[in-house]
C-alpha cells in the first residue's frame, strides 16, 4: 500500500466522526415539492404555456366584441377651370381653390356568423384546458424524476452510514490483530488480512461518498438550485395502504392525465367541426357611425360651401355561395381529426390499463422483496452479533468473522435498495392512476 493511500485512509479515520455529525440543511419532501413547482425549469416553461393559452382564450380573441375605428381627412385642390356662362360667354379661371374636410367614427359588429365564433371560442377554452393538462403531465413526470433522485440520495446516505459502521468494525478488528501480533497471539497474515479488509471498506466508503455528492448535485439541478448547495434528506419512507388493482384501474380511467388530454382533444375537434360548418351559413354585420363633412367649392360653384353631420347605420347580409371548396375541405379534415383522436383515446386507454397492471405486479414484487430483505437483514444482524462474540473469545477465524461482516453489510445495502425501489414503484403506480399529486411522497 502506497504512502499516499495510507495517508488518505488515516484522514478518513480521523474525519469520520465529523462526517457523521456535520450539520446541514435537511431538505424535506414537502420542501422539495415546493421548490420544484417554483424553480424546476420544465415546470416553469409549462406554467408559461398556461399563461399563453389563457391569453389566447380571452374574450378579446373571441370575435364577440365590436371593433371601433375613427377616420379623419382633408383635401386641398388648386385647379384651372373653363367656365361657360348662361349667355354663352366663356371664361378661364385659374387658381381655383376647393377644400374638403371629413371625420367619422364607426362601430362594426357581427350580429351572426353561423355560430363560427361561438365554437371557435369554445375551442380556445378547450385548448387552455388541454394546456393545463399538459402542464400537469410535465409536473407529474418531473416529480417522478426528482423523487427518484431524492430517494437515491437517501439510499446512498444510508449506505454511507452502513459503510462507516463497517469501517469502524474493520478498524477495531485491525487494532485487535495488531495487538494480538505484538503479544504473539496472531500471525502477520492476520494483520495483513485485517488491513486489506479495512482498506477495502475505506475505498468503498470513498466511492459511495463521491456518488452521493454527484447525486445531490443532480437533485439541486432539477430543483433549480445552486448545484453546490449542501443538504441532507429525510430517509424515512411511508407506503400507502389500501391500494387495490380494481380501484387503481377505475381511477385511472377517470383521472389519468393522458386520457384526460385525449378527451379534451376530442371535445376540441367537435367544436372545430361545428365552427367549420359556419362557412355554409350567411353572416349579418351591423355598422353604426357618426360623421362630419365640410366642402368649400370655390367661387364658380352654385354652392360655395356645404357641411353635413349626423349618425349613420347599416346592416349587411353576406353569403359566400361558393368559396372554391375550402369549407368542404376544412370540414372533412376536422372530421378525420376527430376520428383519429378517438382511435388514439382507445389506444391509450388500453396502453394505460396494460402499464398499470404491469406496474401493479412490479409494485407487489417490490413489497415482497422488501419484506424478504428485511428478514435477511435481521438474520444477518443476529448472525454477526454472535460471530462477533465468538471472535472476541477466539473461537472462530478472522475469515469467518469477515464473512459475517460482509453478509451484514450486503444485507443492509440490499434492504436500503429494496426500501426505496418499492416507494418509487408505488409513485409510478400512482402516476398511472392519476393520484400522484395527492400522494404522500
List the helices and strands and how they pair.
Layout: H1 3-21, E1 26-27, H2 29-39, H3 41-56, E2 67-84, E3 90-112, H4 116-182, H5 188-222, E4 232-233, H6 245-255, H7 257-276, E5 283-296, E6 305-318, H8 326-392, H9 398-433
Parallel strand pairs: 1-4
Antiparallel strand pairs: 2-3, 3-5, 5-6
Describe what you observe in this structure.
The chain has helices at 3-21, 29-39, 41-56, 116-182, 188-222, 245-255, 257-276, 326-392, 398-433, and strands at residues 26-27, 67-84, 90-112, 232-233, 283-296, 305-318. The protein has a single domain, classed as Up-down Bundle (Outer membrane efflux proteins (OEP)), CATH 1.20.1600.10. The strands form two sheets. It has a four-stranded antiparallel sheet with strand order 2-3-5-6, with no helix packed on it. A hairpin with an 8-residue loop joins β5 and β6. The protein contains nine helices and six strands. The longest helix has 67 residues, at 116-182. The model has no long low-confidence stretch (mean pLDDT 90). α2 packs across α4 (116-182), α4 runs antiparallel to α9 (398-433) and α7 (257-276) runs antiparallel to α8. It is elongated. By secondary structure, it is of the alpha+beta class. The relative contact order is 0.13.
The main β sheet shows up as: 4 strands, antiparallel
User: Beta-strand level of the residues, as a percent range?
Assistant: 15-25%
CATH class: Mainly Alpha
Order of helices and strands: HEHHEEHHEHHEEHH
How would you classify the helix and strand content by structural class? alpha+beta
Helix content: 55-70%
User: What's the CATH superfamily, by name?
Assistant: Outer membrane efflux proteins (OEP)
How big is the Rg? Answer: 41 Å
Q: What's the rounded overall pLDDT mean?
A: 90
Strand ordering within the main sheet: 2-3-5-6
The count of DSSP E runs of length 2 or more, i.e. the number of strands, is 6
**Tally of individual domains:** 1
- Would you give the CATH topology? Outer membrane efflux proteins (OEP)
- Mind telling me which CATH architecture this is? Up-down Bundle
Amino acid at each position: 500500500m502506497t504512502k499516499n493511500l495510507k495517508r488518505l485512509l488515516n484522514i478518513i479515520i480521523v474525519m469520520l466522526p465529523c462526517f457523521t455529525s456535520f450539520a446541514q440543511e435537511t431538505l424535506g419532501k414537502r420542501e422539495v415539492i415546493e421548490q420544484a413547482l417554483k424553480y424546476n425549469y420544465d415546470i416553469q416553461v409549462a406554467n408559461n404555456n398556461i399563461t399563453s393559452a389563457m391569453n389566447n382564450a380571452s374574450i378579446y380573441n373571441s370575435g364577440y366584441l365590436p371593433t371601433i375605428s375613427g377616420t379623419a381627412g382633408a383635401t386641398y385642390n388648386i385647379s384651372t377651370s373653363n367656365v361657360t356662362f348662361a349667355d354663352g360667354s366663356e371664361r378661364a379661371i385659374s387658381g381655383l381653390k376647393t377644400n374638403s374636410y371629413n371625420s367619422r367614427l364607426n362601430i362594426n359588429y357581427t350580429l351572426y356568423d353561423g355560430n363560427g365564433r361561438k365554437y371557435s371560442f369554445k375551442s380556445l377554452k378547450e385548448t387552455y384546458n388541454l394546456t393545463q393538462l399538459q402542464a400537469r403531465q410535465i409536473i407529474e413526470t418531473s416529480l417522478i424524476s426528482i423523487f427518484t433522485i431524492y430517494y437515491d440520495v437517501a439510499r446512498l446516505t444510508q449506505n454511507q452510514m452502513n459503510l462507516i459502521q463497517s469501517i469502524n468494525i474493520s478498524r477495531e478488528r485491525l487494532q485487535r490483530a495488531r495487538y494480538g501480533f505484538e503479544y504473539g497471539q496472531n500471525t502477520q497474515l492476520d494483520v495483513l488480512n485485517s488491513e486489506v479488509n479495512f482498506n477495502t471498506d475505506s475505498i468503498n466508503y470513498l466511492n459511495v461518498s463521491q456518488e452521493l455528492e454527484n447525486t445531490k448535485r443532480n437533485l439541486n439541478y432539477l430543483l433549480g438550485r445552486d448545484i453546490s448547495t449542501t443538504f441532507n434528506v429525510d430517509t424515512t419512507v411511508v407506503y400507502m395502504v389500501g391500494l387495490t388493482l380494481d380501484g387503481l384501474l377505475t381511477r385511472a380511467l377517470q383521472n389519468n392525465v393522458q386520457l384526460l388530454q385525449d378527451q379534451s382533444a376530442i371535445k376540441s375537434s367537435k367544436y372545430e367541426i361545428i365552427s367549420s360548418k359556419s362557412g355554409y351559413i350567411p353572416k349579418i354585420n351591423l355598422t353604426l357611425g357618426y360623421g362630419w363633412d365640410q366642402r368649400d367649392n370655390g367661387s364658380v360653384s352654385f354652392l360655395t360651401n356645404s357641411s353635413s353631420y349626423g349618425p349613420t347605420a347599416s346592416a349587411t347580409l353576406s353569403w359566400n355561395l361558393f368559396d372554391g371548396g375550402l369549407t368542404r375541405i376544412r370540414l372533412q379534415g376536422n372530421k378525420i381529426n376527430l376520428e383519429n383522436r378517438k382511435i388514439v383515446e382507445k389506444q391509450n386507454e388500453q396502453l394505460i390499463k396494460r402499464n398499470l397492471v404491469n406496474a401493479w405486479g412490479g409494485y407487489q414484487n417490490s413489497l415482497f422483496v422488501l419484506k424478504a430483505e428485511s428478514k435477511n437483514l435481521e438474520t444477518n444482524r443476529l448472525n454477526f452479533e454472535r460471530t462477533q462474540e465468538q471472535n472476541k473469545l477466539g473461537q472462530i477465524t478472522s475469515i469467518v468473522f469477515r464473512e459475517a461482516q460482509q453478509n451484514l453489510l450486503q444485507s443492509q445495502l440490499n434492504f436500503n435498495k429494496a426500501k426505496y425501489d418499492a416507494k418509487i414503484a408505488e409513485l409510478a403506480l400512482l402516476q398511472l392512476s392519476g393520484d400522484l399529486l395527492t400522494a404522500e411522497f
